[in-house]
Amino acid sequence: MTEDPPVQHMVLAVSTVIFSLRPHPDTGELTLWLPLVRRIREPFKNRWALPGGPLQDSQDLGEAARTAMRRTTGLQPRHLEQLYAFGDVDRSPDAPERVVSIVYWALVRQDEDAHAVDAENVAWHPVDEVPGPLAFDHDLIVRYAVDRLRAKVTYSPIAHAFLPAEFALAELRRVYEAVLNRALDPSNFRRQILSQGTVEDTGRRMTGTAHRPPRLYRSAPQSSRYSLTIEESP
Amino acid sequence: MTEDPPVQHMVLAVSTVIFSLRPHPDTGELTLWLPLVRRIREPFKNRWALPGGPLQDSQDLGEAARTAMRRTTGLQPRHLEQLYAFGDVDRSPDAPERVVSIVYWALVRQDEDAHAVDAENVAWHPVDEVPGPLAFDHDLIVRYAVDRLRAKVTYSPIAHAFLPAEFALAELRRVYEAVLNRALDPSNFRRQILSQGTVEDTGRRMTGTAHRPPRLYRSAPQSSRYSLTIEESP
DNA sequence: TGGCCTTGTGGTCACGTCAACCTGAAGGGG
DNA sequence: CCCCTTCAGGTTGACGTGACCACAAGGCCA
Predict the structure, then answer these.
(1) Region annotation Disordered: residue ranges (chains A, B) (predicted)?
(2) Chain-chain contact of B228 with A37 (C-beta, under 8 angstroms)
(3) I need a surface site. Which of A12, A59, A79, B15 has the fewest CB within 10 A?
(4) Running along chain B, 234 residues long, what does each successive block of 10 average in pLDDT?
């Protein structure tokens, strides 16, 4: 009555929405970007799609997401978390088989250079300017992932994952502003972050800056009794 | 590079954690219950497990959860939502095949009599007294589902799904108390619920009660711009 | 060199939310 | 008919938050 014999003509895939921060080429403002891969096969040949692939026998789900990430961007996720399982019967209308996709989302560090392994078929795009329509229902998935990132950033200290080990509060604030897409009051932001105890003062200051040099902080050790199924990597 | 040929020896299943409210047999207090089914096959033969089954070709994921619900409890879900996809390679150590389970959780109405279809192999249990260890990693899944229900009830008006069309605020409060497992101040609860506008006054009062008769409310029409992938049923 | 400009840091104030608590209303039961 | 219980509504103080203000601390430029 619970889980039994295999089913034909069904594919189980793992895809990942990978977020990074870069300055927007027009405005120069820090914005959210994500990598897409161009499909070289039917269905949806030549359309852009989320990086991913079929789940291998020996891989855990998160491991599969990590593998696909490295294959497309050469990057390690600083935060990796399952988003949703998409499996409607009609989600790939022209495909020969039904595809059930378990989708993850990931954050990578701003300072790690995101060199695409296959420069021709992999490209980064600002999240508000994805070259749609994407393959399958990936437009929907991207929207959903952005919503989830925005929601989560407001109640969980995941934004640190975009930054290097040490950072100024203004840098962290600009991360929040890029994710939430609105300006935040520097003073109030400072108070909130410090009161929640997710960062700690290193005692040092940033050097070589114009104007007053800001203090440097690092993210505080997590209390580690997190949700059961969230995965992170160092 | 995205989703391609099938994989052998892998099973895609859909399971559901079904929540209902009943008085606890010992204390008489309203508590959370869920139905489990006894496995009649290996692996984990004779252990209790979540209701579910293999995903059929023609079924959407939520549809599969709904079908399994009706088969085991004869009930319609008043709220149905995807929980998580569990797919670790070692999660069913003695099973001949790897099982990836997409798990849903559901709420059913307190007043609809939960008649098990197969009384011998299906039984309801208080969530804190499940006859463990369960099959597969279902103990973990149950804990995770309870956490998610508790979290969601604090920021979303889903508790109404446990109640009939019209109800008193004290009944709604007792639902919250059962889910959160702590007492709530009646006065403050009243203010919070009314201020968030998720219930509306019917103008009538409950009759035949001892003491002062309470007003009857119904759940207000939802603003319907909810999360993209949450499913509910009428 | 000294004023100016920009950004970082710290504080105040008004407002809204919430937990704890108090008071009266409205019925049934002894 | 009084008492008990539950419903209904209000008060108070602690706390978090947004809007706003003032000073600190460096580089830049006349």
Answers:
(1) 201-234
(2) no
(3) A59
(4) 53 96 92 95 92 93 95 92 95 84 95 74 94 93 96 95 96 97 96 95 90 94 56 44
Domain housing B53? 10-154
Task: Note whether A115 and A146 are within 8 A (CB).
Answer: no
A170 beta carbon < 7 A from strand C?
yes
The pLDDT assigned to A9 comes to 74
Domains contained in chain B, number:
2
Surface-to-core class of residue A130, CB atoms within 10 Å of its CB (0-12 exposed, 13-18 middle, 19+ buried):
middle
Is B62 a member of any domain? yes
pLDDT tens per residue across span A11-53: 999 999 999 999 999 888 999 999 999 999 888 999 999 999 9
Q: Are A40 and A88 in the same domain?
A: yes
> What are the φ/ψ torsions at residue B192 (nearest 5 degrees)?
-60, -50
Same domain for A162 and A84, yes or no, is: no
Cβ-based contacts of A40 with chain B (< 8 Å): 1
Q: Which tens digit of pLDDT belongs to each residue from A188-233?
A: 999 999 999 999 999 999 988 888 999 999 999 876 554 544 454 4
Do residue A106 and residue A96 come from a single domain? Answer: yes
The protein footprint on chain C, as nucleotides within 7 A of a CB, is 5-12, 17-22, 25-29
Report if residue A133 sits inside a domain: yes
Q: Does residue A126 sit in the same domain as residue A194?
A: no
